[in-house]
Design brief:
Layout (H helix, E strand, L loop, with lengths): L6 E5 L1 H7 L3 H30 L4 E7 L2 E6 L31 H13 L2 E7 L2 H7 L10 H11 L2 E4 L5 E6 L1 H6 L2 H15 L2 H9 L3
Antiparallel strand pairs: 1-3, 2-3, 4-6, 5-6
Helix pairs in contact: 7-8
């Protein structure tokens, strides 16, 4: 049988760099791409993989700006290649022709989805520490569990980008305009607590256990 395509990279960053008209846009492109990738992994791929009936397909963020689609099934060509990444306990199914990745289909779906979303950058607000300082539950209904619930309800993704320190909200432009003020308020509340006094910071982090 012909060799099946079992992995494929999709570059989200390159088109953004190509479309950048200013140095500032080029500088922000990697962060925009990261926001888009997180949204795709959270909201786009799970339902698409279910519909494609390809349970062995795994999607991951390969590096900043790229997505990797990979079939987690055993290649029975007996070539003894370095396929150790596919050789895990869960990958007992052999690859069949149905398991081939069709890049055009996935790429087209992604490009269409990306046209419908926008990345809002809340700025460098110490994303790593901020994320850690938000308790899972909050008596006033603004803990991490509430943020996760709003993410699902509004089909948005909150990205705490550790590399840049920025926090992003990614989703449909109308929802970003009209529906996410609760999310913005919660993030700004915890940022205020984090950047306020040491006592406020200690109180905020003590509930994350």
């Amino acid at each position: 049988p012909p060799h099946l395509m079992k992995s494929y990279e999709i570059d989200i960053l390159e088109p953004l760099l190509n479309e950048s008209k200013t140095a500032k846009q080029r500088e922000l492109a990697p962060l925009q791409a990261q926001g888009m990738i997180e949204w795709l992994l959270f909201h786009h791929f799970p339902s698409k993989i279910r519909k494609s009936k390809m349970p062995a397909l795994e999607v991951s963020s390969l590096s900043r700006g790229k997505i990797l689609l990979q079939m987690q099934c055993n290649d029975n060509d007996n070539d003894n290649g370095n396929d150790t990444i596919l050789d895990t306990a869960t990958t007992t199914t052999a690859c069949s022709e149905e398991d081939e990745i069709h890049p055009e289909m996935w790429e087209k779906g992604i490009r269409i989805a990306l046209k419908k979303i926008q990345v809002e950058d809340l700025g460098n607000i110490n994303a790593s520490e901020l994320e850690l300082s938000i308790p899972m539950e909050d008596s006033e209904g603004r803990g991490m569990a509430d943020l996760l619930s709003l993410e699902k309800k509004l089909a948005v993704k909150i990205v705490f980008d550790k590399e840049s320190g920025h926090v992003l909200i990614v989703g449909d432009p109308k929802k970003l305009e009209k529906k996410v003020f609760v999310i913005r308020n919660m993030i700004s509340h915890y940022h205020w607590r984090l950047s306020g006094t040491d006592v406020a910071f200690d109180k905020a982090t003590s509930t994350t256990k």
